[in-house]
Amino acid sequence: MIISPFTPLFFSPSTDKFGAKSKYVQLFARTDRIFIELISTPKEQAPIVYINNLLSNISTPVTLSSWKMNDDKILFFYNISLLPCGYYSVTINGNTSEIFKVTDDECELSETSLIQYSMKDNKQRLDAVWWIDGMQYFFDFRVPGGFKDNGWTFGVDNEQFVTSDEDIVELFSHEYTAVLFTLGNGMGCPVWFAELLNRVLCCNYVYFDGIRYARKESNVPELNQQIEGLKSFVFNQMLQKVKTINPVLEWNNQVSMRRIQNDTYRLTSDSGELRSIKSGSEVDEEYTSAIAGKIYIRYQVIATSLFTSYNYYVRVILDKPANGNVTFDVPFVETVDGNIVHTVGKMSVINGYYSDEQSFSSRKNSYQVDLRAGEILNFVSSENDRTFYEVTWDGEFLEDLPVAPGETPDPPSN
Questions:
Q1: Labelling 171: which of 66, 196, 217, 352 has CA 20 to 30 A away?
Q2: Nearest to 194 by CA among 151, 158, 143
C-alpha cells in the first residue's frame, strides 16, 4: 500500500539529522479539502486511519471510501474538511504525518496561497487517481508565500526583417509575462514543500488562488537558505499564466474545485438578478421570484458489536413560506461491497417555512452526505410555482436542529 505522493500532507520528511528544524507548521483553512489517497492491492487489509487532535489528545478513526480501479488495485480516499481550529496530524497504518494547523484567521491565511491541482485523466500517473467513478477530484495544497511585483519578467517572441536601408520590419511578435512565485515566508519552510510543488507542476491543471498557471519551460524551485544551519528555506519558481483556456473545460474545473463565484454558481446573484449557468453559458429561466433557505444536518454514529449505524437528522427551513409544495433532494454516497453508490433522500416543504425533521441512515457501509458548503439543493416544485428555491448547506454538522420561525418547540422531557 502506498500513500499517494500528491497527498498534501507529509509522511516521510527529511532524514537530515544536522541543523535546526524549521519552525514553520503547515497551515490549512477550515474550508480547504485535505484529500488523502491510498493505493492498495486486493490482498492487503483496509487501511486504519486516525485524525489526531493534538490539543485535546483525542484520535478519531476515519472511515475511508473505496473504489476498485481494476483487478490489481483498490483506491481508498477521504476528504478532510471543516475541522475545528487547532493542531492535527493524521496516522495511516501507524505512520503519522507532520503536524498541521487548521485556522480561520484571515490574517494568517492572507500570507498563504492555495494551490489546487488535477490531471485530465488517470493515464498520466500510476501513483495518484484524479477521476473516481467518473468524477474529477482536485487536491488542495496551501503554502506560505505568493507573487511579488518585483518578480515579473517580460519577454517577447518575435521575428524581424531588416531592409537594405536598415529599416526594421516586424514580421510577427507576441509578448509574454513570466511571474516568480515565492514559496516560504519570513521563517521559510521545510524542503519537502518544494518537492511537492515541483511534483504538482507536472499536473495538467494547476491553480494558484483560482488562477491557472503552468511551469515556465523546465524551471524548477530554486532554493535559498535564509540562515546557515537552519533547515528552513525560501524557494523561487518561475510560472506563466495560462491564457488560452477552453471555457467549458475551465467551467468544469472550477466546479470540481468548488471555488467559483457565488453569482455564477447560483441562479440568484447577490444583486437579486435571476440567472442560470449551464456549461459556462448564461441563459434565462422562467423563474419570477426566489426564496432562500438552509438545510440543517445533525450527524450521529452508533457503533455496536454487530454493526455501525451512520445517522443523519435533517430539516429544511426557508426564509419565507413556500409558494406551494416543494421537494428537495439530499444526496448521499455510500460504499457497498467495495463499490460507490449514490442515493438521494427526499425532504418536503408543504405551504410553509419548514420541513419536518427526517432521518436517513445506513448500517455497515460508509455513508456520507454528498453536499459541499454553499452547494444548492436540487428541487421539484408544483407545476404552477415559478419560484426558485435557493437552499444551501453551511457545511457544519449541528448538535441540535434549530426551531423554525413560528414553530412551537417540543416541551423538554422530564
A1: 217
A2: 143
Q: Decide if 88 contacts 360 (C-beta within 8 A).
A: no
Report in angstroms the alpha-carbon separations of 31 from 162, 257, 373, 375: 58, 12, 8, 13
| Residues 358/315, Cβ–Cβ less than 8 Å | yes
Residue pair 97/7 in contact (Cβ under 8 Å)? The answer is no
With a CB cutoff of 8 Å and minimum separation 6, the contacts of 373 are 31, 82, 258, 393, 394, 395
Residue 134 contacts residue 115 (beta carbons within 8 Å):
no
User: In this structure, what C-alpha cell is assigned to residue 23?
Assistant: 519552525
Spatial CB neighbours of 298, under 8 Å, sequence gap ≥ 6: 312, 313, 314, 397, 398, 399, 400, 401
Cβ-based neighbours of 64, under 8 Å, separated by 6 or more? 36, 38, 46, 47, 49, 76, 77, 78, 366
Q: What is the pLDDT of residues 141-193, one digit of tens each?
A: 999 999 988 889 998 988 988 988 889 998 889 888 999 999 998 889 999 99
Residues 101/28, Cβ–Cβ less than 8 Å: yes
- The per-residue pLDDT for range 310-337, each reduced to its tens digit, is 899 999 998 888 888 899 999 988 877 7
